[in-house]
Amino acid sequence: MSTDRPVLVINAGSSSLKYQLVRPGSGASLATGLVERIGLDGGRVTHAAHGQEHATPVDVPDHHRAFEVLRAQFAEYGPDLAQEPPVAVGHRVVHGGSRFASTVLIDDEVLEALRRLVPLAPLHNPGNIAGIEVAREAFPDLPQVAIFDTAFHQTMPPAAYTYAVPRAWREEHGVRRYGFHGTSHDYVARRTAALLGRPAEEVAVVVLHLGNGASATAVLDGRSVDTTMGLTPLEGLVMGTRGGDLDPGVGGHLARVAGVGIEDFDRALSKESGLLGLTGSSDFREVMARRAAGDPDATLAFDVVVHRLVRYLGALALVMGRLDAVTFTAGIGENNAELRSAVLSRAGLLGIRLDESANGAADGEARISTVDSPVAAFVVPTNEEWEIARQAAALLEG
Ligand code: AMP
């Protein structure tokens, strides 16, 4: 990278605005912030820069005001955006459909395409779009770049992304698998290749992104060839409030026997299932604490989470036909050695030999397989903001 001017990375949701000023070359984070409760009572902003954090109550009726708040935080606590202007604003966008297979410079036409994609991600894309619209006003002189959670998975072959459903659903309504967390899977797979000391284009990795949302991806020679999430981020693994895979017949069954309507069904699947549905808590730490105390619901939840992971780990390895490494990332994957151990101790068939003490001691990037393990296992902290900054800067450099 010829220059390392920072990128302002924006992750705008319907009621929050997360931001970070990142140098794309080194990954150095110059400031992070979060504007919370946009459009709600009790708004507040937290801004961290120069090693200090400042939390301030603010009134944030809309995204427009949220960007004013952001600018004011930089003006007051730094770094000074005028002194070293960002090279771009990089926006995280959840759903890019089949239209966006890579990072793009945002113009009116791209924004219009994003609006047409809202039906595919009604919970996420509207907040992302609001962030883009307002950022264009707030920073009219800066290029605005969209980085999609789905784009990395556009390399999946039709065999992996096609649902066996009626033609009209597929052709008229975009019903297919898209996959999510692409920025994280891409970053973690490349870090894994670096830890193996090999080019990313030559390694086969299963990345397990296990946070509040969770997905597993088969990354073969640097490209996603299969992933566990589908049309929406509901498919696949067990998550904080999402249950992952489910017999498609459950919806019809509940409609007939209990009169459950589509809105209630959707809400239950995205907000009331997963760890929350099984234990009453969506927080993995709390589930682990309860399991340690002998709680049967928490014990079952852990077993269901592990079972689903083992099943997909085996499936994704076989999809690739070879395997060099399995890598854990995100809140749970980076921090919970017990879960990693439960999964990998059942992966001997794949050639993985877990090093229990390395696993227990892992902090930051770490190898957790034995030195003679035929297939390696790693922990790699994800860094989506750096990856977004890197991709935005790379696009501008052509
Ligand atoms: P994320 O969405 O990546 O922020 O991950 C959130 C999830 O990570 C929550 O379920 C947390 O309980 C879990 N998590 C965060 N820190 C830890 C930890 N030290 N041990 C276990 N789980 C953790």
TrEMBL record:
<dbReference type="GO" id="GO:0006085">
    <property type="term" value="P:acetyl-CoA biosynthetic process"/>
</dbReference>
<feature type="binding site">
    <location>
        <position position="92"/>
    </location>
    <ligand>
        <name>substrate</name>
    </ligand>
</feature>
<feature type="active site" description="Proton donor/acceptor">
    <location>
        <position position="149"/>
    </location>
</feature>
<dbReference type="InterPro" id="IPR000890">
    <property type="entry name" value="Aliphatic_acid_kin_short-chain"/>
</dbReference>
<keyword id="KW-0963">Cytoplasm</keyword>
<feature type="binding site">
    <location>
        <begin position="209"/>
        <end position="213"/>
    </location>
    <ligand>
        <name>ATP</name>
    </ligand>
</feature>
<feature type="binding site">
    <location>
        <position position="18"/>
    </location>
    <ligand>
        <name>ATP</name>
    </ligand>
</feature>
<keyword id="KW-0418">Kinase</keyword>
<dbReference type="InterPro" id="IPR004372">
    <property type="entry name" value="Ac/propionate_kinase"/>
</dbReference>
<dbReference type="GO" id="GO:0006083">
    <property type="term" value="P:acetate metabolic process"/>
</dbReference>
<feature type="binding site">
    <location>
        <position position="384"/>
    </location>
    <ligand>
        <name>Mg(2+)</name>
    </ligand>
</feature>
<comment type="subunit">
    <text>Homodimer.</text>
</comment>
<keyword id="KW-0460">Magnesium</keyword>
<feature type="binding site">
    <location>
        <begin position="331"/>
        <end position="335"/>
    </location>
    <ligand>
        <name>ATP</name>
    </ligand>
</feature>
<dbReference type="GO" id="GO:0008776">
    <property type="term" value="F:acetate kinase activity"/>
</dbReference>
<comment type="pathway">
    <text>Metabolic intermediate biosynthesis; acetyl-CoA biosynthesis; acetyl-CoA from acetate: step 1/2.</text>
</comment>
<protein>
    <recommendedName>
        <fullName>Acetate kinase</fullName>
        <ecNumber>2.7.2.1</ecNumber>
    </recommendedName>
</protein>
<keyword id="KW-0479">Metal-binding</keyword>
<keyword id="KW-0067">ATP-binding</keyword>
<dbReference type="GO" id="GO:0000287">
    <property type="term" value="F:magnesium ion binding"/>
</dbReference>
<dbReference type="InterPro" id="IPR043129">
    <property type="entry name" value="ATPase_NBD"/>
</dbReference>
<feature type="binding site">
    <location>
        <begin position="283"/>
        <end position="285"/>
    </location>
    <ligand>
        <name>ATP</name>
    </ligand>
</feature>
<dbReference type="InterPro" id="IPR023865">
    <property type="entry name" value="Aliphatic_acid_kinase_CS"/>
</dbReference>
<comment type="similarity">
    <text>Belongs to the acetokinase family.</text>
</comment>
<comment type="function">
    <text>Catalyzes the formation of acetyl phosphate from acetate and ATP. Can also catalyze the reverse reaction.</text>
</comment>
<feature type="site" description="Transition state stabilizer">
    <location>
        <position position="242"/>
    </location>
</feature>
<dbReference type="GO" id="GO:0005737">
    <property type="term" value="C:cytoplasm"/>
</dbReference>
<feature type="site" description="Transition state stabilizer">
    <location>
        <position position="181"/>
    </location>
</feature>
<dbReference type="GO" id="GO:0005524">
    <property type="term" value="F:ATP binding"/>
</dbReference>
<dbReference type="Pfam" id="PF00871">
    <property type="entry name" value="Acetate_kinase"/>
</dbReference>
<feature type="binding site">
    <location>
        <position position="11"/>
    </location>
    <ligand>
        <name>Mg(2+)</name>
    </ligand>
</feature>
<keyword id="KW-0547">Nucleotide-binding</keyword>
<keyword id="KW-0808">Transferase</keyword>
